[in-house]
């Protein structure tokens, strides 16, 4: 029967057959949950009751009017600032380790190693680093004669977010470095040779030759930095549980708390949508700024 069909009909049957299963899975596990999330954001569902009362935009109004919800974005600014420094340091190491240095592969491996470690294990490891009484960081400050700088790294509301962000710096700097190294190796060496012959210094080659070729890669790494800063959860959840006094609570942390501790799934759904929209807007602005500078 299949052989009796025309070639065009057989082609469409094969195409539909191959697309049916992946599209069904995509709709079941991606599109439907996303649409359901949008719907729930306009309800007061508690996650248990079969009743899902429609309350319109009330959840979104609550998000922007309640400083305890929207205001936690202030706690995530240190993650962004440290992320920018992280990219600069990663680029510096990439430029250095892209040269013909003895043992460069070893140093690349050492710097990349933290990225492949489990995030929860990293958090628990730094719990001992930041411990006020027996932590290795305070012990190091004592050993080098800087004991006056000892403090409660996770108990001081002024620096707790910078302390947590430094963990991300240590973990992801090597990953960004590897991306930059890959981009640097794609730049033709003849261009540097020509620039050297023309008398360009190392700094001139970096600013006028290297950086313009890294625009798209910088955009990619800044995308990862911004999206990571907006979606921080594991570090404050494990190390501080949002403390002290909510100083390290992030928006994702607040969303999870709203859903699973206070059983307000409607508000939590709206918070998820707001986070998505804010991420899209910020990344869109970043894309425009970087592309304009690249031109």
Written overview of the protein:
The structure is a single chain. This protein has one domain: MetI-like (MetI-like fold, Orthogonal Bundle). Helix content is 69%, strand content 0%. The protein is built from 14 helices and no strands. The model has no long low-confidence stretch (mean pLDDT 88). Belongs to the binding-protein-dependent transport system permease family. Pfam families: BPD_transp_1. This is Carbohydrate ABC transporter permease.
How do you describe this structure in short?
It is a multi-pass membrane protein. The chain is mainly alpha-helical and about 300 residues long. It has helices at about 5-40, 60-65, 65-70, 75-95, 105-110, 120-130, 135-145, 160-185, 190-195, 200-215, 215-230, 235-240, 250-260, 265-295.
Please give the share of residues in helix.
55-70%
How many distinct folded domains?
1
Q: Examine the coordinates and then state which fold CATH places here, giving the name of the CATH topology.
A: MetI-like fold
Q: Determine the structural class based on helices, strands and strand pairing.
A: mainly alpha
CATH superfamily: MetI-like
> What's the main sheet like?
none
- How large is the radius of gyration? 25 Å
Overall pLDDT level: 88
Class, according to the CATH hierarchy? Mainly Alpha
Secondary structure tally, helices = 14
Q: Architecture in CATH? A: Orthogonal Bundle
The end-to-end distance, rounded to whole angstroms, is 59 Å
Low-confidence stretches: none
* Number of distinct beta strands: 0
InterPro entries: ABC_transporter_permease (IPR051393), MetI-like (IPR000515), MetI-like_sf (IPR035906)
Family: Belongs to the binding-protein-dependent transport system permease family.
Membrane topology: Multi-pass membrane protein
Transmembrane segments: 12-35, 77-97, 109-130, 159-183, 220-239, 265-285
């Amino acid at each position: 029967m299949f052989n009796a069909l025309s070639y065009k009909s057989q082609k469409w049957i094969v195409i539909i057959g191959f697309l049916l299963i992946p599209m069904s899975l995509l709709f079941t596990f991606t599109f439907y949950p996303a649409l359901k999330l949008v719907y729930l954001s306009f309800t007061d569902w508690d996650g248990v009751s079969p009743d899902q009362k429609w309350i319109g935009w009330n959840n979104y109004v609550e998000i922007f009017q309640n400083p305890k919800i929207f205001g936690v974005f202030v706690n995530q600014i240190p993650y962004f600032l440290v992320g920018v420094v992280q990219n600069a340091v990663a680029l510096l190491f990439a430029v250095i380790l892209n040269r013909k240095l003895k043992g460069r592969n070893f140093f690349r491996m050492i710097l990349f190693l933290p990225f492949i470690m489990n995030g929860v294990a990293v958090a628990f490891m730094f719990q001992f680093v930041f411990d006020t009484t027996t932590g290795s960081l305070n012990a190091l400050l004592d050993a080098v004669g800087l004991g006056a700088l000892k403090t409660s790294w996770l108990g001081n509301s002024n620096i707790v977010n910078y302390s947590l962000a430094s963990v991300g710096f240590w973990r992801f700097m090597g990953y960004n470095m590897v991306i930059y190294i890959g981009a640097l190796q794609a730049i033709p060496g003849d261009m540097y040779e020509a620039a050297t012959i023309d008398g360009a210094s190392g700094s001139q080659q970096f600013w006028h030759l290297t950086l313009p070729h890294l625009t798209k890669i910088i955009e990619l790494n800044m995308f990862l930095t911004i999206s990571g800063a907006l979606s921080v959860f594991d570090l404050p959840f494990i190390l501080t549980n949002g403390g002290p006094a909510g100083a390290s609570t992030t928006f994702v942390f607040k969303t999870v708390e709203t859903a699973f501790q206070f059983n307000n799934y409607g508000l939590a759904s709206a918070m998820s949508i707001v986070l998505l929209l804010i991420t899209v807007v910020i990344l869109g602005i970043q894309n425009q700024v970087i592309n304009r500078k690249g031109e």
